[in-house]
Amino acid sequence: MTTVINVPPSLDDVTFEQVLDQLAPLPADEKILVDARHARWASPFGLTALLTLAQTRAERPAFAPPEADETVSYWNRTGFFRYATELFDIVGSAPRQKPAGESDVLLEITPIAKSDDVHEVVGRIQQKAQHILTRELNLDAKATMGFAMTLSEACQNIVEHAGRGGWVAVQTYKWTKRLGRRVVVIAVCDAGVGFRQSLESAPGRTRSDRWDDAMALEEAVVRGVSRFRDPGRGQGLAGVRRYVGRWDGKLSVRSGTARIAIVPTWDDDVALREGLAPFSGAQMQITIPERTAGR
Amino acid sequence: MINHIDLSTVLRRTVCDLYSNLVTRPTGAAVRGAIETQLAELGGRTVTVIDFSNVGLLDYSCADEVVAKLLLPYCDDCPPRDAYFLFRGMSETHLDALEHVLERHRLALVLQQEDGAPTIVGAVSEAERRTWDASLAVGGGTSREIGGAAGLATEEVEMVLEGLARRRLMMRIDDQWVAVGAPL
Q1: What class is the B124-184 domain?
Q2: What is the ipTM score, two decimals?
């Protein structure tokens, strides 16, 4: 029997929870069909999280692409189908893929598994980001280098801690609903061990009474704790937090059954959500808004 | 002896000849390993100029691997050799990553600025900065001379100078103290 998992019309970090809620009661080896026929839009988080979802399934899932031509065209330009065809059985035919690097998106969906992949994405983003960040988002030229640093550290989280490969994507778009301004969004998703298990592997770690995904996220994201004893560790996420703070951005990290967020004044998200549907690995989103006069 | 290391060249030679960014821990560890190999070939007292001029991006993880882990053993009670370091060619974004890393490890280094003037970057006390700046201003000297220039008592300045030397920010040549990076 195949269970249909409906993808909401607008797929982002918030609505992806609807997908996970449908998935939660199913065993990993149950055949699923991820039905995106009615999807009209997806954020970089939504697309990379869909690929991550496929990685978590023991039984290869099926995938029904969006019906709307412009949606399929956009998802194709992000590189989604290049990897979706490897992870899903596509219902119908997958759109013909453009060669990598010919897209108008800031950074197409890119697999991250090793240090060289981080060099590759940093090199690619530097070529494209300067113009977009300074001209379209009115960010200081200094923000471009910091943006690449942030991207590098976010991707390294996969290489250093996930235990398996993941995905990164970067895109700019106008966030009409929540902000009314353009934003640049980095999404980094993996289906690895997640923050809790990663921190549990720290040598000599003693467990406290309260120990769960939420606490693991608080330790790693807020307090800069790492599974390594090396005092130099944990600086990557701290650096991401500083960058996000400096540019009035938002950072959210989901792992296991919890999600933590560094919430700017322009957003009404809650800082910590617990008791979410379980999902392997870690999923990070960094949102930097366009600068407007006075901000 | 003055030894010059172009980090961009080391990066291309040891990791990949297409890379210009110092990012990721494995890259940083490889570059640091290459620097340590060069240092091991040198004898006696050395000042190594580490040049960032042609490095694009430096991220926190790589700054930790290349700079902090390079300096830490030399600030120990038994440093591997009598080596001092002068950093140059650092952009504002390089410094942004580096300053946090130095603070985290309570380290400091000497940076040669664009105009050639050296300055200390990182975790230093007010007395250390005053002493180091005074030494630079008077072109080095005895602890008494530097203490006078810094407005500190000789006993206090001696302690500070010893600490700066231990942190590889100051060199002692007989009874003279010279700030690393000062024109000799």
Answers
A1: mainly alpha
A2: 0.82
Inspect the interface and report whether the beta carbons of A235 and B104 lie closer than 8 Å: yes
Among candidates B21, B60, B101 on the partner chain, residue whose Cβ is nearest the Cβ of A123: B21
Strand partners, A272: A260
Instruction: Write down the pTM of the prediction.
Output: 0.88
Chain B residues whose CB is inside 8 A of the A231 CB are 104-105
CATH architecture of A106-295: 2-Layer Sandwich (3.30)
- What are B2-52's pLDDT values in tens digits? 899 999 999 998 888 778 899 999 999 999 999 999 998 887 889 999 999
Q: What is the mean pLDDT of chain B?
A: 93
- Inter-chain CB proximity A146 and B19 less than 8 Å: no
CATH of B1-123, one of 2.60.40, 1.10.40, 3.30.750, 2.30.130: 3.30.750
Whether A154 and A188 have beta carbons less than 8 Å apart is answered as yes
Query: Are A118 and B24 within 8 A, CB to CB?
Result: yes
Chain B positions in Cβ-Cβ contact with residue A123 (cut-off 8 Å): 19-21
pLDDT tens for each residue of A62-71: 999 999 999 9
List the domain boundaries for chain A.
Answer: 1-94, 106-295
| Secondary structure (3-state) at A35 | strand
Instruction: Give tens-digit pLDDT for A207-223.
Output: 666 889 999 999 889 88
Burial environment of residue A160 by CB neighbours within 10 A (0 to 12, 13 to 18, 19 or more): buried
Q: Which stretches in chain A have pLDDT values below 50?
A: none
Question: Which of A252, A255, A273 is closest to A263 using CA atoms?
Answer: A252
Degrees to nearest 5, angle at CA B60 with B56 and B64: 105
For domain A1-94, give the fold. Answer: Transcription Regulator spoIIAA (3.30.750)
Q: Shortest Cα distance from B54 to chain A (angstroms)?
A: 15
